[in-house]
Design a protein that fits this description.
alpha/beta, Glycerol-3-phosphate (1)-acyltransferase, seven-stranded mixed beta sheet, 7 helices, about 40% helix, about 15% strand
Length: about 220
């Protein structure tokens, strides 16, 4: 996985600026806890997932370029494939143990970059953060990169599942303190028990942040 080129970094900064300006105007977007985002070194940004707009929304938490995993359908068409790849995205085949995607995640973090992973895997509904996939914790333990959890309130109303259009409203993001993987159990071989424990801790943190963000967005 190659690092973003200078041209890609400039392109990302431009696109991010447009997205953040739009979100602040249309959704009255507010970000709380941005100071928790590391200013250097690798980390995994782990947001809750209730809407298709979550992906662009999370770029508001930091000016650092974020690398995104995306469902392979987003690379179906040439134009969309170029757009997402130009921003540093890469596809993952949902519902499978995509070793290539996990390898790409490890390479991104090994390059001291920031990676976005949605621990719920796909969009969910309702106020509860249910069972998470272990991939986020596994990659964190493999690379020793901290996980930065993010609660997103209001995005489900902004663009509900099945909706073709976005709706105005209020969106609030709450960023939590980094969750550092334990030093024991980290490395090339991440024990299943350590992965499971980190996943449970992440789920608990996400629930707290999601509740807070939802209240501040006005449920």
């Amino acid at each position: 996985m190659t690092r973003l080129s200078r041209v890609q970094l400039l392109w990302y900064a431009f696109v991010r600026g447009v997205i953040v300006a739009f979100c602040r105007g249309f959704w009255r977007l507010r970000v709380e806890g941005g100071e928790h985002v590391p200013t250097s070194g690798p980390f995994i940004l782990a947001p809750v997932h209730r809407s298709n707009v979550d992906t662009p929304l999370v770029c508001a938490v930091t000016r650092r370029p974020l690398r995104y995993m995306g469902k392979d359908a987003m690379w179906k068409y040439r134009a969309s494939a170029w757009f997402f790849t130009s921003l540093g995205g890469f596809p993952v085949h949902r519902g499978t143990a995509d070793r290539e995607a996990l390898r790409s995640c490890v390479e991104v973090l090994a390059g001291d970059e920031a990676l976005v992973m949605f621990p719920e895997g796909t969009r969910q509904s309702g106020p509860l953060v249910e069972e998470l996939f272990d991939g986020t914790a596994y990659v964190s333990l493999r690379t020793r990169a901290p996980i930065v959890p993010v609660g997103i309130g209001g995005s489900e109303r902004a663009m509900p599942k099945g909706a073709k259009m976005i709706h105005p409203g209020r969106v609030h993001l709450v960023v939590g303190p980094p969750i550092h993987p334990p030093t024991s159990g980290s490395g090339a071989r991440a024990p299943r028990r350590a992965v499971r424990e980190l996943t449970i801790r992440l789920r608990d943190e996400l629930q707290v942040l999601f509740d807070e963000a939802s209240i501040k967005a006005g449920k």
